[in-house]
């Protein structure tokens, strides 16, 4: 019987007419996580509206091209500083409106926890935007206290000091109180409270402090253990009772001014927040009755950011808005205070993530796209090919004949499964023959190409099944095996550490070409030599969020991806895996009078090789000496001429000033192997 000839492979789906910016926004769920700042403009580019209540927008692709024209090194972090200001105003406005609507008889006085992003310009922007609201800062270490204290120009603004504090910190805090600064150390342990009283006596001052209470209410999700009995921080209720008795005995009732709790960095459920606020409110009113003239209640951090792009629809989403958060705090506190006829305290929150997340966008260039190797549509095996290669080819022909049968309304799942099993068996046979030396490496390559072509063609038919739940598990898994890899110029461990550490999803999408329907399914991998150096989960309207829909590469410039909501923690917690350093930063301000509606106020170069090496105690002088000795040895052995040795040493030393990241050249063409899916 003659060998059947393969039918032409199904053509890639044509780009549907009418693909719009709204389609792109729906696919990448931009309206859900963008919070009114980010959108797709008429050019198919990502854009940002950084100014509150103003229509002015900045084309992110234009900013990136501007930076390329300036020969700036990529990857690069774009900081839209006006977004910081807008977030500060939104937060304070939400609380002011909640207080007014509720008839609350206290006020709100927020603080920014600088651990979320300690960059000086970020802190300065937040402090400046918060001046009309007397917004302060929060610190959690000695270095953060030293950085924050000089920024407390307004004596009424709060500097809340959390974390474990040694004698140096406590003395500085007490000294700041003596000059009239509103600095409040929060006692995390009973022993810390005793230490504070001892130092206050030595300095002959009356201290003012707060207490972090270990509530019975616990959070949920990744930060559940920030509260409850297993919390790392906080004073238990029995310890709090002892602390109050001690203050009364020492006639220091006036010293306790603040109660604090913290449910975690990202509170997912507003009902848990309400429960915690009511619990701390009960403690507050009962301490008032016991002669403790408390002034502040600090509800901690945790105001959520919708990275997952859905209000409660995803496991790690939040189920409330900013307005609902403010209402939950204000009304819950008011309810308890009114029942007990107690004065309403000044409310504090430490909403760092909600303030900073949106202002930073990481721009990363895709260096290459790699997919499984397949055969050409008109491929036919040669007569001398091994029987296993011809058998794989026969399986491919049968799969394509099934696809060509126009009389079938639904894909023949049973037959496709049988052909898939045949392909798996023949590929394993090819591997065995190769390992035993009976199959040339060229034919092994052909066998692999045929196998992946069969998988691709079966997968195309499986996707047409009207009831996906009836598709066998093995066939559903083909989709995952066939996803492309996009190699990108960044390090997961440096720039999106929370993705690696806790599985946090971040919105990622192209910054241009959004007027074209994406046609490739990809997983992003980084430059590190670690198998964890990849992005495994994405924000998408697809039910399967283990891949990202992207475009084919074109010869019209770099293919750039934007990683959004980078401003909270990611900027500061980066790890130096493989000695990849901090990326270049550009600080951008909106200005309607400037071309493009913006100007670049500052560019901070990324870490160079020499700086990264110094962190692990390699220094240019020592390395140059060692390299010089190595080259001299090879010159003495006659392996190289002296001039070649000098050139090599010069080339080596020039690397010290180079970026730690890949630097594409004009000769680089992104690999785009394989046929379009």
Largest sheet data: 10 strands, mixed
Mean pLDDT: 91
Q: Quote the CATH topology of the domain at 104-350.
A: TIM Barrel
- The CATH superfamily of the domain at 104-350 is identified as Alanine racemase
Strand content: 5-15%
Distance between the termini: 33 Å
In the CATH hierarchy, what is the class of the domain at 104-350? Alpha Beta
**Helix-strand category:** alpha/beta
What gross morphology would you assign? globular
Q: Give the low-confidence spans.
A: 1-15, 673-677
Q: DSSP helix count? A: 22
Number of strands: 21
Please tell me how large the radius of gyration is. Answer: 31 Å
Architecture of the domain at 104-350, according to CATH? Alpha-Beta Barrel
Share of helix, binned: 25-40%
Q: What structural keywords apply?
A:
Methane Monooxygenase Hydroxylase, Chain G, domain 1, TIM Barrel, ten-stranded mixed beta sheet, 22 helices, 677 residues, eight-stranded parallel beta sheet, alpha/beta, 14% strand, disordered C terminus, disordered N terminus
How does this structure look, described?
The chain contains 22 helices and 21 strands. With 677 residues, the protein is of the alpha/beta class. Among the domains are: 104-350, Alanine racemase (TIM Barrel, Alpha-Beta Barrel); 387-480, Methane Monooxygenase Hydroxylase, Chain G, domain 1 (Up-down Bundle); 610-657. Strands 4, 13, 14, 15, 16, 17, 18, 19, 20 and 21 form a ten-stranded mixed β-sheet that branches. Strands 5-6-7-8-9-10-11-12 form an eight-stranded parallel β-sheet. The longest helix has 23 residues, at 413-435. It starts with 20 loop residues before the first helix and ends in a 23-residue tail after the last helix. Mean pLDDT is 91; it is low at 1-15 and 673-677.
């Amino acid at each position: 019987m003659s060998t059947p000839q393969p039918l032409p492979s199904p053509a890639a789906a044509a780009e549907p007419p009418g693909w719009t910016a709204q389609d792109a926004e729906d696919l990448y769920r931009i309206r859900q996580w963008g919070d009114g700042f980010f959108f797709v403009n008429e050019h198919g580019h990502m854009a940002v509206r950084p100014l509150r209540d103003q229509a002015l927008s900045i084309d992110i692709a234009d900013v990136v091209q501007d930076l390329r024209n300036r020969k700036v090194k990529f990857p690069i972090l774009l900081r839209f500083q006006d977004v910081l200001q807008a977030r500060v105003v939104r937060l304070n406005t939400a609380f002011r409106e909640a207080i007014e609507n509720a008839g609350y008889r206290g006020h709100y006085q927020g603080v920014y926890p600088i651990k979320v992003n300690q960059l000086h310009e970020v802190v300065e922007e937040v402090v400046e935007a918060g001046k009309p609201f007397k917004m302060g800062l929060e610190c959690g270490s000695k270095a953060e206290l030293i950085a924050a204290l000089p920024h407390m120009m307004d004596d009424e603004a709060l500097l809340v000091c959390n974390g474990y504090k040694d004698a140096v910190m406590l003395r500085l805090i007490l000294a700041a109180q003596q000059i009239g600064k509103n600095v409040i150390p929060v006692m995390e342990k009973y022993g810390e409270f005793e230490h504070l009283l001892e130092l206050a006596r030595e300095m002959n001052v009356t201290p003012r402090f707060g207490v972090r209470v270990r509530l019975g209410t616990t959070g949920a999700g990744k930060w559940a253990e920030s509260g409850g009995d297993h919390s790392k921080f906080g004073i238990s209720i029995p310890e709090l009772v002892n602390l109050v008795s001690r203050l009364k005995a020492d006639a220091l009732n006036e010293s306790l001014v603040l109660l604090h709790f913290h449910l975690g960095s990202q509170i997912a459920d507003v009902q848990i927040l309400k429960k915690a606020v009511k619990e701390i409110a009960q403690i507050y009113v009962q301490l008032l009755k016991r002669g403790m003239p408390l002034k502040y209640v600090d509800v901690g951090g945790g105001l959520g950011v919708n990275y997952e792009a859905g209000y409660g629809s995803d496991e790690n989403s939040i189920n409330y808005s900013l307005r609902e958060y403010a209402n939950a705090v204000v009304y819950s506190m008011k309810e308890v205070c009114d029942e007990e006829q107690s004065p309403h305290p000044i409310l504090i929150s430490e909403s760092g993530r909600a303030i900073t997340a949106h202002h930073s966008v990481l721009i990363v260039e895709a260096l290459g796209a790699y997919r499984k190797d397949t055969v050409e549509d008109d491929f036919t095996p040669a007569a001398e090919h091994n029987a296993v290669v011809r058998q794989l080819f026969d399986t491919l022909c049968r799969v394509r004949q099934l696809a060509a049968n126009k009389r079938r309304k639904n894909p023949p799942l049973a037959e496709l499964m049988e052909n898939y099993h045949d392909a798996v068996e023949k590929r394993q046979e090819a591997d065995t023959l190769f390992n035993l030396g009976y199959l040339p490496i060229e034919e092994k390559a052909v066998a692999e190409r045929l196998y992946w072509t069969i998988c691709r063609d079966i997968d195309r038919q499986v996707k047409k099944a009207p009831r996906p739940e009836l598709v066998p598990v093995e066939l559903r898994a083909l989709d995952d095996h066939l996803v492309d890899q996009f190699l990108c110029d960044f390090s997961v461990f440096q720039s999106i550490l929370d993705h690696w550490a806790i599985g946090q999803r971040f919105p990622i999408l192209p910054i241009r070409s959004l007027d074209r329907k994406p046609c490739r399914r990809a997983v992003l991998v980084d430059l590190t030599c670690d198998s964890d150096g990849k992005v495994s989960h994405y924000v998408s309207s697809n039910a399967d969020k283990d891949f990202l829909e992207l475009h084919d590469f074109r010869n019209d410039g770099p293919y750039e991806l934007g990683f959004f909501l980078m401003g909270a923690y990611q900027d500061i917690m980066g790890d130096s895996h493989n000695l990849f350093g901090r990326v270049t930063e550009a600080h951008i301000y909106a200005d309607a009078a400037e071309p493009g509606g913006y100007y670049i106020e500052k560019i901070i170069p990324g870490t160079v090789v020499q700086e990264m090496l110094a962190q692990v105690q390699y220094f240019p002088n020592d390395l140059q000496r060692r390299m010089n000795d190595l080259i001299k040895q090879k010159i003495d052995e006659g392996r190289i001429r002296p001039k070649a040795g000098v050139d090599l040493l010069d080339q080596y030393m020039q690397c010290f000033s180079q970026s730690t990241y890949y630097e594409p050249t004009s000769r680089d063409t992104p690999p785009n192997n394989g046929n379009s899916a």
